[in-house]
Amino acid sequence: MPTGRVKWFSLEKGFGFIASDEGEDVYLAATSLPEGVPTVKPGTKLEFGVADGRRGPQALSVRIIDAPVSLVDNNRINNDDLAAMIEDTIKILDKVGNGLRHGRHPSGPEAERLGRVLRGIAGQLEA
């Protein structure tokens, strides 16, 4: 199977291109990525099948061989700071829970902010 590296990929557009080791650009559709992988970073090494598409070669059955190191993973928060963040978040969630018991949902911006905080903490815990 051919191999190459991701030149660029846009999650919003749903496609990108691979620079194959043979020197040609290969179209990469989001639907060709492995299940559970919504996007790939530039420089990610891939193995893929190739089919002739309307506008040239198109990648199929993509398999990630080597992904570049994430800068986020290298910026892990120290344990004491993470513990303090979790404790503060518990207080916020308690307040939101009490409001929900009284029929008050958080406003759109509040809910969005809380979602970002929870995703950030989850990312730190999973790193």
TrEMBL record:
InterPro entries: CSD, CSP_DNA-bd, NA-bd_OB-fold
Coiled coil: none
Transmembrane segments: none
Residue ranges of domain CSD in the record: 1-64
SMART domains: CSP
Gene Ontology molecular function: nucleic acid binding
Name used for this protein in its record: Unannotated protein
Higher taxonomy: unclassified sequences, metagenomes, ecological metagenomes
